[in-house]
Design goal:
Strand order of the largest sheet: 1-2-3-4-7-8-9-10-11-12
Oligomer: single chain
CATH class of the largest domain: Alpha Beta
Bound molecules: S-adenosyl-L-homocysteine, iron/sulfur cluster
Structural class: alpha/beta
Order of helices and strands: HHHEEEEEHEHEHEHEHHHEHEHE
Radius of gyration: 21 Å
CATH superfamily of the largest domain: Aldolase class I
Distance between the termini: 18 Å
């Protein structure tokens, strides 16, 4: 193994649920309560290796390691810091897969945008990740490792800065296509014995995978739901997002309405503004209809470089016109400023490397 290479193991302790961890401890001849101790090391104290769990008996630690279980599986292979404080990491996992995660600091809080898959299968026309194709799902351990490593980095490199308190599942990949692992990661982050993140501090974003939205509500996963609308009618959406051919806009909106009715929570729509396509008077009128009478808000963002010359970012004037056209619905829509532009860390720009996702 070359120096600094990730542990070549698929067995990540952070991928285990609390009961699976208990099972492992018993199998290894340990007492049941040791599982809770190990969970604290993994999820609260951000330990880096099995050896670092110093109050766990040596025999138990050895038995766990001998079975191939590791704490971390990824190696940092790149890090870029933006002039605005945003940081983007490139990690390589045990099989050579590369993924990115982004820290977005403000004065009040630190947020992280995590990846859920290596690449993405959804092929949205405007998205760089979509161009990579899909390689594989990330495990809960790999998702959580992005969070834990960022928290450790903050402690060392930006002492005194606010806690890492918000997580958005909006990096590479479609979270609803990897719902089991996303759920495990959310539940650990929410667990009061670990990071104790509130539901309103975690957001899972989907391109519109309707069965996933329904399952997300059914399981009561403690995170907020965001839906990438990016098109105000079926035709426009199907053009930009192939997912909409499978689950057309009326079906998507009906799943969103059921989610709102079942959970009582507000949904966030993300809306990418593209010149002459989604940033037009008629699109604003249609979007107004969608937000009317629905418990929701809209995060609009101007298109970031998409490497697709047919899709162009609108001018400030065009954006202003769109917002004015929203009329009374203006209060439900916010224009998001992309962070970390100089390091390609904004939404839809995460692509790890040119070419395929490997
Ligand atoms: N797959 C999920 C989450 C990851 S994409 C989803 O699609 O929701 C995260 C967000 O980035 C989505 O809202 C997507 O619409 C947005 N996005 C993708 N490419 C973009 C681009 N070129 N400019 C601006 N936003 C983009
Ligand atoms: Fe995948 Fe989301 Fe990009 Fe679409 S916008 S290709 S779903 S990551």
């Amino acid at each position: 193994m070359r120096e600094g290479a990730p542990a070549q193991s698929t067995r990540s302790l952070r991928s285990l649920s609390a009961s699976e961890l208990e099972q492992l401890v018993l199998e290894c001849g340990g007492k049941k309560y040791r599982a809770a101790q190990i969970a604290l090391w993994l999820h609260r104290d951000d330990v880096e290796s099995v050896d670092g769990m110093v109050n766990v008996p040596l025999e138990l630690r050895s038995a766990i390691s001998e079975r191939g279980w590791v704490v971390e599986q990824m190696t940092e292979v790149g890090r870029q810091e933006s002039t605005d404080g945003t940081v983007k990491w490139l990690y390589e996992s045990w099989d050579g897969s590369k993924i990115e995660c982004v820290l977005i600091p403000t004065e009040e809080r630190n947020s992280i945008c995590v990846s859920t898959q290596v690449g993405c299968a959804m092929q949205c026309a405007f998205c760089r990740t979509g161009r990579l194709g899909f390689k594989r799902n990330l495990s809960a351990g790999e998702i959580l490792e992005q969070f834990v490593r960022t928290r450790r980095w903050l402690k060392e490199r930006r002492p005194g800065s606010p806690a890492l308190s918000n997580v958005v599942f909006m990096g590479m990949g479609e979270p609803m296509n990897n719902l089991d692992e996303v759920e495990k990661a959310v539940r650990w982050l929410h667990d009061q014995r670990s990071s104790n993140l509130a539901r309103r501090h975690m957001t899972v974003s989907t391109s519109g995978v309707v069965p996933g939205i329904r399952e997300f509500a059914r399981r009561g996963i403690p995170a907020q739901l965001a839906v990438s609308l990016n098109g105000s009618n079926q035709e426009m959406r199907a053009e930009l997002m192939p997912v909409s051919r499978r689950w057309p806009l009326p079906e998507l909106l009906s799943a969103v309405d059921d989610y709102i009715a079942e959970t009582g929570l507000e949904v966030t729509f993300e809306f990418v503004l593209i010149r002459g396509i989604t940033c037009t008077d008629s699109a604003a009128d249609e979007l107004k209809e969608i937000v009317r009478n629905r418990k929701c808000k809209v995060n609009a963002i101007a298109l970031n470089s998409s490497e697709n010359e047919k899709l162009v970012s609108p001018s400030q004037e065009e954006i202003d016109r769109f917002f004015v056209r929203m009329g009374s619905a203006r209060k439900f829509i916010t224009l998001r400023q992309p962070r970390g532009r100089d390091i390609l860390a904004a939404c839809g720009q995460l692509a790890a490397q040119k070419g395929k996702a490997n």
